[in-house]
Amino acid sequence: MAIARQNAVEGILGPILSQASIRKTFDIREMQIRDQVMVENTGNKDRFSNAVLDCMFPKEKTPAELLHYTKMDGLRGIAASGELRLYPILKRISEGELDAFAITHRLDGYFKGPGGPYYVDLSEDLFYVSLARVGAANEPYMWNVFAEQGTGVRLKLRLTPKQADLRGIQYAQASRTLLNRINDALTWEKQPPFVPWTISRIGGFYLPSNLNVEDEVRLMMKRHKGGANPTQSDGQYDYWPVPIGVQNPVCMIEVTGIECGPNANRASVAVAIAGTALAGAAVI
What pLDDT is recorded for position 197? Predict the structure, then answer.
């Protein structure tokens, strides 16, 4: 019976995975098919789970040239600390973070928990910084919303991720995601749904459709309970510091320029970075 079930699952998923060009990452012998759920063996190093994630949320080509919009206070903080801070998704939990993904993919367990919805707990351990693509059509919006009506700046960054994920946000659409197609097909054939080990990270790259004007790219790290914890606190939230211009295990970040907003004071920008880690960056 177990072999028959394996053959059935392989037959169901084969065409879907071939269409997504990830068929070779799927090995039915590495799957645990339980009554309620199907998961990948942990010894497989999440090979198939990561393939699903990469297909749904492609990684940015690296080194990536991206922008970070910020207010003048933000620039002063970055310059003084010499680091880019990744803050928890918890800060934006009321804006459709994680729950949009859970709703789309019918992850009912995300909305249950002893102290409240489980996705809120997850949001405390996913740290990110928002970035934008060079030459995007939404520049006026970005200057207005994220650089205080254009009085701030945008940092021109070159990023080479190591442990961190660097991916563009996917916004909710009417079309089904790859994970939807996989689990719809399994459910139709009365088989348990597949739950990738990477699912808690996947949700951090998925937002409601009304936010698609931002066309956001995220640099993200996950804090594992019981693992190394490099995070610090600003008194309100934990954050994950990533040094600028210094080799580190998370992501190499180089500032290649500082562009003043349309309403920024260039002299104030020069003063803000004088004598700091950003002092050598060209002010444009």
Answer: 85
